[in-house]
Amino acid sequence: MPKLNKPFSSCISLFIIALIMQLFGCASPQPVTGGPQDRIPPKVVNMTPKNLTRNFSAKKILIEFDEYFKIQDETKEFNISPELEKAPILKIKKNVLDITLPDTLEKNTTYTLNFGKAIADINESNVIKNLTYVFSTGNEIDSLTLSGKVNSALTGEAEKDVTVFILPVERDTLFGKRRPSIYTLTDSSGNYKLNNLRKGNYKVYALKEATGGGDKIYQQTSDEIGFLKSPVTIDKNIDNINLQIFKEKSADFRVLERKINSDGSILLTFSQQLINPKLTVTEPAALDVGKRLTLNSTNDTAKIWLNDLSFDSVKVAIQDQGKLLQVVNLTRGKKDSYTRDLTPTDNAANGKLNPYQTYTLTFPIPITAADASKITLLDDSIKRTNFELIKDSTNFLKYYVKFPWKTKRSYDLKFSAGAFTGIFNSKNKEFIKKFNLDPTENYGTRTLIMDVPDTTKNYIVEFINEKKLPVKQYIINKKTKIVLANFLAGKYFVRVIYDENKNGVWDTGNVKLGTQPEKIWYSPEEQSLRPNWEVENSMTIPKPPSP
């Protein structure tokens, strides 16, 4: 074998080392680090024939985008107005949308292809909203517009991505049965605009679909709706057609959900808020004795615990104000077993107990007995025995722990296994609660002297927090002093419901009857609570706005 000279040998060695490094580099690829997440949807760069073409006679429409895209929920999102017997065929060819029009088009007619939220980019699913393509088979294109804003009837806030649609009066019977062909989506400020409308009389609707919807067909049990009672005549461009959406209360009572939970309790939810409900176990009738029942604050959800779960089936009769509404039947398997967790929640939000409240434990199932000897209270690590464990006199889910709590102390409550006994002799596992007593100076009081515009009417006055959730409510019909006492300092506001039927609750509208929700007024002035302050001022409720 010939001997290699030194320079040639060195070159071979370097080549081998470089090859090995390349192989190892390929085996361990490094992640690509890029810039911010792509939030830009595809952009239209060309339309053939051009948008707003008159005397249209093409069989195909080509829409070119600046990137690759996908079509999502085509059957829900895309349509053509007026409708054709056969829907257009959509195909993707790289970054071009190829649309074939299979039907013969009507003469002298403006057509609108509405893509809704059907077009999105490949990687991040960024959607082009309210993309349309308009053409006319005649010399003129319908060019009338309708615009306005959509707000929540309850909160007054602008509603984003709500579907606003119109139906010709003669086709209003299709509401809730078929999806509309003329629609648009509201922007982030709740504004909408419908373009290329033809002259006519229309009913106007706003639809906010629940998660999982998207078919643009109103479902009363889950969606929110807004509407104008009277038709709108569109013979010119119309602005400020504003709508308020609301969750419609069901006109008919029905049980929405019925089931036996994993802990053996019976859960029932209703389509209506009941006024004076009564629930009775009719079969086996013996199970009605000793049953335990709770209802939520709005009386539209009930939970029942029975003393015996050996039944194959059980019937529960639901009544309201003495009237039988429905009898429901529930069955259980003979081998069904149940797991009961006796770990409670407490009222020490974020580990801080309101100094004006009693420390409260709320259990998920009824408690039948408690053993205070199995509870250890540590006050800054010092064991204390002078606390009281008190059962609520009416609520079988609640217990109270009373003790002279002090600020700047840390409290540990240890509940040993078996401290509480629930139904069916279930026992709690060990759990610990830790909290501090919040100082009183973090709380304030605000007093409002409310004046009403009409003493023959009722007004529901609510203090609401920043999330627009009510924290306290008063019903008044004359000049009244109301107090928000000893509440955590923060931003609060006043909301007034014009209680037209004097039933003490906010009544939503009804599409079938054409009624709108009861009107609501939000005070423009913030009613803040400052730490350790007491403030009093006056407020006059204005007259409700005219319909």
From TrEMBL:
Report the residue ranges that make up the SbsA Ig-like domain in this protein: 38-137
Q: Does the keyword Isomerase apply?
A: no
Gene Ontology terms for molecular function: carbohydrate binding
Q: Which domain of life is it from?
A: Bacteria
Residues making up the signal peptide according to the UniProt record: 1-29
Q: Which UniProt keywords apply?
A: Signal
Protein name, as recorded: SbsA Ig-like domain-containing protein
Please give the organism.
Pedobacter jejuensis
